[in-house]
# Entry
Amino acid sequence: MSLAMSLIRCDLHHVEAIRSILNDVILTSTASYDYEPKSADWIRSWFQTKLDSRLPVFGIQTADGDLIAYASFGPFRPWAAYRYTIEHSIYVHRDYQGQGLGRTLLQTLITTAIDDGFHTMIGGIDGANMASIRLHQSLGFSKCGEIREAGFKFDRWLDLHFYQRFLEDRVFKPQHTLSDQ
# Structure
């Protein structure tokens, strides 16, 4: 990460920048399997849910204060037995990809998840997204599953790969649960 950039905890005034980054990803890539751009109200609601659930939204901003990347984690699935498993998302503005911002954000999410007492972190990655796959592998994630032709976007079938990282040395000491919210 460049010295002119800083890691921050996002707040509600970042809604428009988050929306801009996410909508570009939706419209131009398979990093999201969504089709429809999100409204500012949708992003505000998503963000408020994160705040209410005490879940992080980290960002990287330029020296001028422009948000250029963001990341978060949340519940993997809504049932009680999954409460120690989280799934994360990382999105980097297209003009800033390949500069290590995703690595900085993922490392921050991992550290936060460990501190919060979660047991395992999951990443759902499009099978053709080799940069994201390599990033996850370099930070200790292992492929744990694949759903072939799980999505259809840009006139082609997409394979969804799941990568997993255990967040502690298999000594289970839960501290935080999503149901505690």
Summary: The beta strands are 5-9, 57-62, 67-75, 85-92, 120-126, 142-153, 156-166.
